[in-house]
Fold:
Amino acid sequence: MIESIYTGITGVQSHQTRMNVIGNNIANVNTSGFKSARVTFADVMGRTLSEGAAARDGVAPTNPRQAGLGVRVSSIDLDMSQGSSQNTGIDTDLSIEGDGFFVVSDGQTTSYTRDGSFLFDKTGKLIDPGTGLVVQGNLSQDDGTFKSETENLVIPLDRESKAQATTAIHLSGNLDVSGDGQGEPVWSTDTSFGLPASLAGNASLDFTAFTSGAGLKVTIGKGGQITESTLSVPPRTFPDRLALVAELNAQINVNGTLQGKVLFKADDLGQIILRTTEGGEKIELSVDNADPNANVVAALGLAPQARTAGLNASDTSLLNDLANVGQHLTSGDVLRFSGTKPSGERFDGIFTFTEGTNDTLDDLLQVVASAYGGVRAGLDTDTGKLILTNEISGDRVVGFDLNLSLLDTGNGSGIFGDNPPFSYSTNTQIYDNKGDVHSLTVNFIKGTVANEWTWVATVDGLNPQAGNNGKAVFHEDGTLRTFQSSDKSALVFENSGGTPALRVDIAAGGTERLGGLTQVVAPSSVSVRDQDGHASGRLIEVNIEDDGNIRGLFSNGESQVLGRVLLASFTNPEGLKRGGANLFTQTEASGQPVVGAAGSTVSGRVRAGSLEMSNVDLADEFVSMMVTQRGFQASARSITTSDELLSELVNLKR
Structure:
C-alpha cells in the first residue's frame, strides 16, 4: 500500500519537471536564438513477483508478473530547429540561416550562441553586450588573405585605407568612325592640290642634355597670316627615329595651335621631315629654338631659322609629294572616285596606284577624265583645284561634282581630307603613392589612315617621360585590332617631391567586366571605366556579408575585407549544455566543434541586420501544458486514494 504512494510521488515529480521545462520554454518565447526543450519519460521497474512458467502437460506458459514503481524523467532534449528571422535594421545584428553557432570567448572559456545581437565597443571589438564576451573570427592581413588563428574580432574604427598608386587603367567606349560627321577623308572638287612646305634633317636620338623647357618653335605662314607655337621635346633618349617622330607628332596633336597643320615623318634616307599638311604658294614653314641656350633645331638636324615655302602642284607632281597625302601610298592602293555631271548623269571609277608607273597626279587625272568622257582633266594654276575642259570646245566644265576616297589595303596609306582631323578627349583622375591626385587626359585623333587613330596622353598637362602616345587600330567591323604605345612602354610620369614615378599600363581591349574600344557609326564615348589607384581614406561604414566577411567602406570609395566572423558546427548539437545568457558549452556528447567560414567549412550563412527568434511554438507548449497538468492531477489523486485505503486499514481494529 505504501508503494502506491511513492509511485504517485514519482508521477508528481516527473510531471513537475516537465512543467518546469514547459514554463521555461514559454518564458523564453521572445528570447533571441533560444532553443526550446522537451521532456521524455520512462517507467521505473520495481519488483518481479514471478518470472512466469514454461508450458507443461498441456498447460500454456504463464506470463511474468512485475510491479512497477512509477515514472522517471528519461531525458530533456534540446530542439535545435531553425527559428524565424526578424529584421532589425541594425548592421551588427546577425542571424544564422542553417547550421552553426557564433563563437564567443572571455579569453579563457569559449562558448557558442545563436543569439547574434552584437555591437562594436569603443575599442573596435565585436562583442555580445549582454555578457561582454568577444566574438571570435579571423582578422585579415595586408595581402587580403586571412590569418589562420581564431582570435578576437577587433576592427579599429579609426582605421584608414592607405593610398594606392594607379598602375593600370582600362579604356572603353566608342570612337565615331565618321569622325567629324563628314564621313571618311576625301578629295573633292574643292580640294586644292599643292606641295607642302617641309624641312628635313638627320636627327639625334639623345635629348637628355636638354631641360624640360627646351623646345622647337614652329612658325607657319598662310596668305600673310602667321601661326606660331612651341613643341616640347622630352629630355630622354629615343630608341629609334620612329619613336622620336611619334613623340613629336604627339606633341603636335595636343597643341591647339599646330594640330592638323604640321606633322613629322621619317623617310627611307634616315631623315625626319617636318612638313605642313597644306600645300600651295601661300604656305610657309620655319623653325627656331624656343630657348636660345638650347639648340633643339640642330639636334633635330634642321637648319636654325630655316624657312621653306610650298608650291601649287602640277600635273607631273608625284602623288606622294602632295601635301594632301598623309601617309605614302604604296603599290596596290586603290583610289575610288564618283561624281555627277552637270546633267545629273553619274560617273565613277577606280585608280590603282603603282609606284614608278602609275604614281603621278596626271595619271590620276587621266583616269578621272576617261570615266567622265569627252573632257581633259588638269589643275587650275592659281588655286591648284581640279578642272575639266571640253575636248572639242575647250570650255571649262562647270557644275560637276567629284569625290575621291582611298580604299586602304592594309598597307598604312592615308590621305588628308578637306576637313581638319577629328579628335576626342577623355579625362580621369589617377593617384600616386602618396594619394595625390593627377589629371590624366587621353586625346584621340582620327588619322589619315582608315581605321587608325593616334592617341596622346598627358598628365597634369605635362608630357610623361614614356608611353605617352601610340595608335589604336581597328578591324573593318569596328572591333579593336591593336592598341599600344609607340615605344612599347607603359605610361611613365616622373613626380616631384620625391614621390616614385607613376607607371600606368593603359589597356583598351575587352575584359569579362568591361568592353573595349570600338569604332562604329555612333557618338564618341570613350572614357576610363576602370583604374586601380585611390587616395587614402578613413573608415566610415562596416558591413557584414553572408560569408561572415566584415567589409569596411572608406571615404575614398574603396572597400576592404577587415576580418570575418567564424561559425562552429557540432556533430550532435543537441548534446550542448546550456550555460545561461543564450550560451552553450561543449560536452562529451556534442563532440568537438568544427570552426570555419560560413557557407564553406560550415554550411550555415550569416544574415546581417536580423536576429533569429525563439523556436518555441506556443500552441504546442499550451497543449503540452494541459497534458502535463492532467498527468500531475492523476498522479496526485493516486496518492490521496492510497492514503484513504491506509485509513480504512487503520480503522479495522476499532
